[in-house]
Design a protein that fits this description.
Elements: E1 7-8, H1 48-59, E2 68-70, H2 71-94, H3 101-113, H4 115-121, H5 127-135, H6 139-148, E3 158-165, E4 168-178, H7 187-190, H8 195-211, H9 217-234, H10 244-247, E5 249-252, H11 253-259, H12 265-271, E6 279-282, H13 287-297, H14 300-315, H15 321-336, H16 344-353, H17 369-380, H18 383-405, H19 412-423, E7 426-430, H20 448-465, E8 486-487, E9 492-496, H21 511-528, H22 549-567, H23 579-603, H24 617-628, E10 631-633, H25 635-644, H26 652-658, H27 662-668
Parallel strand pairs: 4-6, 7-9
Antiparallel strand pairs: 1-8, 2-10, 3-4, 5-6, 8-9
Helix pairs in contact: 2-3, 2-16, 3-16, 5-14, 6-12, 6-14, 8-9, 8-15, 9-13, 9-14, 18-19, 18-21, 18-23, 21-23, 21-24, 22-23, 23-26
Length: 687
């Protein structure tokens, strides 16, 4: 799903009890917490994240093949190991039964692992595509090529995708959003603080053009950087893109042609296999005519070079070593600070299984991710985990209902609608009900680029084929092997299998730790339906204002208090959290903590919580929360996240919400002299 309201946790995990941990996991005593991680020299009220994790932060080193090291990354490593074993087994199976799903996954894996063949081929797998780009003599031909890039290597100035129509929630709509940028965000082109990254980008473009032997590589690389800089200048910021009321702009095709002339929309849609559509929804309404004008005004040779570069850039991880090395050096090292390439088998897993695409510099493209998900679930997801997680989620829903019922700032009319909306949510656990069909996808162990193309074409064809039909309410947009969760535009809360297995989720663990970890995740996702974006969608999922004017003002005022707090946080010197970009996640983090704490208290049924390892129940709850977010990253990674990611950096996903929770003050005797202290009347109180 494409709306920002569909939000991921990005790897929040639960630190579980010792009994279910694998032999290679750290030992946790009865509290279910890593007691060796604490920094007793830091007061909880000064920096709670440091107090709970300081010793761990001091002794933990970021691996050279990663941009960060987190609690979640340790679980990802285990999932990678599971997928590695799965794909090695599938590769052995491939020669015996090449046509079934396991055989196809194994053949794809073999093709990626065959470095000698990739090196021998060099850039030849792209030869036909590059030749076609060279033959393009008009902008019409290049617009059609951009349309074809939806299911092939390359990029476009405009990105199409399907999602539920926010004004007709029984059907899908084609959404068009601004695109055309290689760097993570428009700020990388426009802000002086990113001058070095922009300079490195120019060198990378030239290097890629030289590798594919594109004429006048130095001249064309300068033109490409200038072209993308012009697009960046007229593009909306990511904060602007979060406004659902502004990004829903339906057009007929003639209306789109009139609103954004200079780009051949019919050729573009035809190239994407969408020539039959009569209606689209445009996101960045004021940017589209400007980007279309840039396309029209850019010389065809420059557009051809840009097309060739974007094709080779996206294909680089699947080509010979010079391409792979160049891609890593720029995308991973320069932009994220990663010092060393991961092992080949880890790269192969991302190529075949997809999974947690956010753990890699490149987004998932042309994978067998849903197919591998079927194989993964069969091996690693016991039915008991599904039932236990669903039961826990039901308890969180009950706690959220009680919070809505007792809000002191909401009128009865809005409260009734909020409760109706909450009642429509569907909790999806583990894996989709209906597996994706890969029977017609040809996969060969000697044609890696072809495998990626055919998988991407099958994926795009799946969405195109159902575009005219009714919405599939059972749909998932995150694979079972992904360590994450999300709140979708189907009013569903989705928890993939990977986040619901030990040590991520342990039904036998101390309830305080479970609620502080996975409970907060569930509460977070529930709150997304009522954050600054989600609240604009009604009980049917339609974009409609169901709030009274008084409630609307009250919500914005309370959200503003939270935003002001986060604006003061400085993850790295000179870089502050952008409250307009992170507002939805910050609201969800605060709501997640409050809902999970309520549910934990309810689970005690009036009995006092036991004291374990000298910690009360509430103390263990908050410590589990802090340890689930522990991690460290380099400055380049944090700067990238602060610029382009709607999630606040992990330290502030702990310190930010807890200073607005009254029970935290009581649990740790936080005093007015402590740095995180907020007077009661200054605390954000939303959901």
């Amino acid at each position: 799903m494409r709306w920002a309201v569909v939000s991921c946790l990005i790897g929040a995990v639960l630190v579980a009890g010792a009994d279910t941990l694998a032999a290679d996991s750290p030992f946790y005593p009865p509290a279910g917490l890593d007691m060796s991680a604490f920094d007793p020299g830091t007061r909880p009220g000064d920096d709670f994240f440091q107090h709970v994790n300081g010793a761990w932060l001091a002794r933990t080193v970021i691996p050279p093949d990663k941009a960060s090291i987190t609690e979640a990354q340790m679980v990802r490593d285990r999932i990678e190991t599971q997928l590695h074993e799965l794909l090695e087994s599938a590769a052995a199976h491939a020669s015996r039964r090449p046509g079934d799903l396991e055989g196809k996954a194994g053949a794809f894996y073999q093709a990626f692992m065959d470095e000698s063949r990739r090196d021998a081929l060099g850039a030849r797998p792209l030869a036909a595509e590059l030749a076609a780009i060279r033959r393009s003599r008009s902008r019409t031909e290049l617009a059609r090529w951009m349309g074809r890039s939806t299911a092939d290597f390359g990029s476009s100035f405009f990105q199409p995708s399907f999602d539920v129509d926010l004004k007709d929630t029984e059907h899908y709509a084609l959404y068009l959003t601004q695109a055309g940028l290689t760097l993570p965000d428009r700020d990388y082109y426009l802000e002086p603080s990113f001058a070095e990254q922009k300079k490195a980008f120019a060198a990378y473009v030239r290097q890629i053009l030289q590798l594919i032997r594109w004429p006048a590589a130095a001249e064309r690389s300068a033109e490409i950087v200038a072209l993308e800089s012009r697009i960046a200048e007229v593009s909306w910021s990511k904060a602007e893109q979060r406004d659902l009321l502004k990004v829903y702009n339906p057009y007929t095709i003639p209306e789109l042609e009139a609103a954004a002339p200079g780009f051949d929309w019919r050729s573009f849609l035809g190239g994407a296999g969408l020539g039959h559509l009569t209606r689209v929804v445009v996101n960045e309404k004021t940017a589209f005519p400007k980007i279309a004008a840039i396309f029209h005004d850019t010389p065809v040779p420059t557009l051809r070079a840009w097309a060739a570069f974007t094709s080779a850039d996206q294909a680089a991880p699947y080509l010979s070593q010079p391409f792979v090395a160049a891609h890593f050096a720029f995308h991973d090292h320069v932009l994220l600070g990663v010092k060393q390439r991961p092992a080949l088998w880890k790269e192969a897993i991302r190529a075949v299984a997809g999974g947690d695409c956010l753990a890699a510099a490149s987004a998932c493209f042309g994978t067998l991710d849903w197919g591998v998900g079927q194989l993964y679930v069969a091996r690693h997801f016991p039915p008991a985990s599904k039932a236990s997680a669903a039961a826990l989620a039901a308890e969180l829903v009950k706690a959220f209902r009680a919070r809505i019922e007792h809000l002191d700032w909401m009128t009865e009319a809005t409260r009734a609608e909020a409760l109706r909306k909450l009642d429509t949510y569907v909790i999806k656990v583990g894996y989709p009900d209906h597996p994706r069909d890969y029977s017609n996808v040809l996969i060969r162990n000697d044609d890696l680029i072809g495998d990626v193309r055919r998988a991407a074409q099958a994926d795009w064809s799946f969405y195109v084929a159902r575009s005219g039909g009714p919405v599939d309410k059972t749909d998932w947009t995150m694979t079972p092997q992904t360590l994450d969760a999300y709140n979708g535009s189907l009013r569903d809360i989705v928890f993939p299998a990977a986040i619901l297995q030990p040590p991520d989720f342990d039904p036998a663990a101390d309830p305080a730790v479970n609620y502080g970890g996975i409970g907060m995740i569930i509460g977070h996702e529930l709150t997304h339906g009522f954050d600054d974006q989600g609240r604009l969608l009604d009980v049917s999922g339609s974009l409609r204002n169901w709030w009274t004017d008084a409630d609307d003002r009250a919500f914005k005022e309370r959200a503003g208090i939270l935003g002001s707090q986060y604006a003061a946080f400085e993850p790295v010197p000179g870089v502050h959290i952008k409250p307009d970009l992170t507002m939805g996640e910050n609201i969800a983090d605060l709501g997640g903590v409050l809902i999970a704490l309520d549910a934990y208290h309810n689970s005690l049924h009036g009995s006092p919580a036991p004291v374990i390892d000298g910690l009360t129940g509430d103390q263990r709850f908050f410590c589990a929360l802090a340890q689930s977010w522990r991690g460290k990253a380099g400055e380049d990674y944090i700067r990238n996240q602060a610029t382009s990611d709607p999630h606040s950096y992990r330290k502030f996903r702990v310190n930010g919400p807890i200073r607005n929770v009254d029970a935290w003050y009581s649990a740790f005797e936080v005093q007015p002299t402590d740095k995180l202290y907020l007077p009661p009347d200054k605390r954000a109180r939303i959901w």
